[in-house]
Design goal:
The structure is a homodimer of 510-residue chains. The first copy, chain A, has 510 residues and is of the alpha/beta class. Chain A is built from 19 helices and 17 strands. Chain A has a domain of 311 residues: Trimethylamine methyltransferase-like (TIM Barrel). In chain A, strands 9, 11, 12, 13 and 14 form a five-stranded mixed sheet that branches. In chain A, a hairpin with a 3-residue loop joins strand 7 and strand 8. The termini of chain A are far apart. At the A-B interface, helix 2, helix 10, helix 11, helix 12 and helix 13 of A face helix 2, helix 10, helix 11, helix 12 and helix 13 of B.
Chain lengths: 510, 510
């Protein structure tokens, strides 16, 4: 061993003398979901919903609040009446097929490139909360430090393949420049793929420019380095900010997720089927428009839907209605042969308690069984998306590990069938220590290293704490152990210079 | 209003002056699961497992440790070698078809009769824990009072259709007579269907006699009043106690659940497919034997399977492997055209925390999507089945309500599609208050009356408590509000007299 290597090892160990484990950095590749997708509705039912959506698109129309967008629509033969666009059935079919059914998003570490579509699954953290919550301080406004913390925790996760986007809103940074800090943090503290800003055309352009510093514009013309979330302002409306961002990304051939954001009973009907009619119409309008801007732009069919509580008006997460909608939306996406985004570890609960956990799996298990390709909000979501929970993040992450194993399906090989063991273990015997067990014990079962499987006595003697209390310790350990991925200093300097320039230029919008 | 009625109303109100709600007694009928069952494995895979099971049954054999059972097997053409029975393929097919694919179990309130099989779903509480746990006193040995409490809570649940069996072990009662107290408590404190004792032939006979006092032996010959749980002593063994109980119930034509109890890695191979080969062979052996004792005896194909943690040896609940096994076992039961029992709200966690909640839904949602007919352990299970949790019971019960709605599937009717609303609500409008919403708002969404959907501020101002803390209050309120169903005093006296006689007769076995 060279002196340098030994020194480095010792100094690393000295830095974290109390840490029992080495830093964990994603070792597991993006999984394939080998499970057959769950078909909730028969073909006839899916056709019924789709045909109703086509009726909405051709007869009721979708509003586009952007002059250039309207010009592009007219140029491609869309009938416009005021701000409202009417799409013919044939036009929808023609432009939807221009979008690829699968694409690769670049990561600055090529080993972490992700495939979006087909049987591939990509998990990303929560997106959008203005608050964070932990056991120590309760709920408070999120800061840039929180944002960085979640980027670091995501980077360290074996089960999250994507760094996400606005993991939390860094409310201590000015609104008009915080997109720069977010994009920079994703690049600096992680080497996983990430999302661009969608709050305006200019912010999207900044995201593209920062990505170009890292990836180069040539590589980005071949494969997208940004995947960005365009929400429809339901009912049936694309606003100027989202359209501005959409156009920037589509022109740069960067990937888009077009997501109607629907609460049944508010911006959609209380009928779940009706909500899906609307969702499908809105998503298709956005997707078709993206292909008119730049045919072949990678685009994901998105579905964010649940219902409101009709007594309080609050959205309800983990509801049985949202599961039905999720499964059906996935079937619609498959019909369109498009990558699909939906689901996540959704919860209405304010804290990482039993309610939050029940709610999260009530959505996440259908997410997996529906065959969702890109799962935003796969860790950390609380309070209907208003808060990101540190402990919740750790707990959700454990479930993601389990889903990786679940998605492998049933092994029906000779080894999986274990007939030799079945023939030879006697009726007063057991399978501990059989040759088959000894050959398979390491990979036979997924093992959470976090959940408690000890005896009651051992659990009690170790403090008798809840999983949430344990998660509090775990996330702090992870942040202490965090070590950044290397970043070319020239790239870092260029990014910092670009940010400094932009921060001097950008004026607050309001 | 007559004076009597008014008096009664006032006196009832006075009894519970502090109770905000009236006593809730199951109002909702047993649900139909309209969801298509999830087909994890293709037909070829199911045939492969079944054929391997037939090989085990014909070549490796199943042990029956009971002389009369062996005589019955020989009489029906089974090859015996020592205690080991070898079943031919044709014999399995012949006797499995003698069992009904669906049957009705009587409740002493006929409105609460349950159908077991087909698309019908029946939820029953946890079975077997020697301990109880609540927030006030932690974990302690269960008593007869705890048993009664859980019977009462089950009776009050809208979502539990069955009173279950050994909800907890009443450890303060002598082992040799506690079966009498349990059967009596089910009859006295509930009018839902219940399970008989299986700890010996005599205890089974006592259960039958007590049921006969309530239902009459004629009615019980037509339709079973008892449904009892026969576990296989895996690997490949039926012991004398279980066989004794099985014979008593089958001769009295009372329903049976034949359940191999399998932990992959211990009494079954680490391969999930191999575990299923064994499970299917063992279940079929028990089912075929029951049809040899009395053809046409209602029998449920049972599957209790998960894996052990190969590091600690402890069983793991909520594992991804157990989900794969559950889905596949359900497919095997459908192939056999038998009612199916599996799943439940399983958890390894010691307390009703986030871990317990995650684990529970990880099993319970597949339980529903697999199309399980009889779900034991649908509420209250903790610590790998060693403890019944009071708060866990309340929390699980909320999920059961959600599953009732989920099982209704997607409503694709004209009302569900809501096209008129979709056509008329403008792009700056919303669906609150539309005629469609007003017509549907009461039944559009399932609403948990327990989970918190309030704003953060409201939740905080109301104490900022966890769902588990809230459940602690809920179960106490329910027990305070409990009012027993009426029971014919003559029947009650006869039951008490029978119990007194038997308690004087029965000698401790050891």
């Amino acid at each position: 061993m060279s002196r340098d290597r030994r020194t480095r090892r010792i100094s690393r160990r000295d830095k974290h003398p109390a840490d029992p484990e080495a830093t964990t950095i994603a070792k597991i590749a993006q999984p394939l979901n080998t499970l057959p997708p769950y078909e909730l509705v028969n073909e006839e039912g899916i056709a019924k919903i789709h045909n109703a959506s086509l009726e909405i698109l051709s007869d009721v129309g979708i509003d586009f609040y952007d002059d250039e967008a309207q010009a592009i629509l007219i140029q491609h033969g869309v009938r416009m009446q005021g701000d409202t666009a009417f799409f013919d059935r044939e036009m929808i079919a023609e432009y939807v097929t221009k979008a690829p059914s699968q694409f690769t998003q670049l990561a600055r570490n090529p080993e972490r490139n992700v495939v979006i579509g087909g049987k591939h699954v990509c998990f990303a953290p929560v997106y959008g909360p203005p608050f964070v919550v932990n056991l120590d301080r309760g709920r408070r406004e999120a800061t840039l430090e929180d944002f960085r913390n979640f980027v670091k925790l995501t980077y360290q996760s074996e089960w999250l393949h994507h760094s996400g986007g606005t993991i939390v809103e860094p409310t201590d940074e000015p609104t008009h420049t915080r997109h720069l800090d977010m994009v920079y943090s994703h690049i600096k503290y992680s080497d996983k793929p990430f999302m661009g800003s969608v709050t305006s055309a200019n912010n999207a352009a900044d995201s593209v420019k920062m990505a170009e510093i890292v990836f180069g514009s040539e590589a980005m013309a071949e494969q997208p380095a940004l995947l960005s979330l365009i929400n429809i302002s339901s009912p049936r409306r694309l606003d100027d900010r989202m359209l501005g961002a959409l156009k920037v990304y589509a022109k740069a051939r960067q990937a888009l997720i077009i997501t109607p954001f629907l609460f049944s009973g508010a911006m959609a009907p209380v009928g779940v089927a009706g909500t899906l009619v609307q969702l499908n119409a809105e998503a298709l309008a956005g997707i078709v428009f993206s292909q008119m801007v730049n045919p072949g732009t990678p685009v994901v069919y998105g579905a964010f839907q649940t219902n409101i509580d009709l007594q309080s008006g609050a959205p309800v997460f983990g509801s049985p209605e949202s599961q039905l909608a999720l499964y059906t939306a996935a079937q619609l996406a498959r019909k369109h042969k498009l990558p699909f985004r939906s689901g996540g570890m959704f919860a209405s609960s304010k804290i990482a308690d039993a309610q939050a956990a029940y709610e999260s799996v009530m959505v996440m298990l259908p997410t997996v069984q529906a065959g969702v390709n890109f799962v935003l909000h796969a860790a950390g979501w609380l309070e209907g998306g208003l808060a990101a929970g540190y402990e919740k993040f750790v707990l959700d992450n454990e479930l993601l590990g389990m889903f990786h194993k679940f998605m492998k399906g049933l092994d029906l090989s000779e080894n999986g069938m274990a007939m030799e063991s079945l023939r030879t273990v006697p009726t007063d015997g057991h399978h501990l220590g059989t040759p088959h067990t000894m050959q398979n014990f390491r990979q036979a079962f997924h093992r959470s290293t976090f959940f408690d499987y000890n005896s009651f006595e051992q659990w009690r003697d170790e403090g008798g704490i809840t999983a949430t209390e344990k998660a509090n310790g775990r996330y702090k350990t992870l942040l202490r152990q965090y070590q950044p991925p290397s970043l070319d200093p020239a790239v870092d300097e260029a990014l910092l210079a670009f940010m400094a320039k932009r921060k001097a230029e950008i004026k607050p919008e309001y």
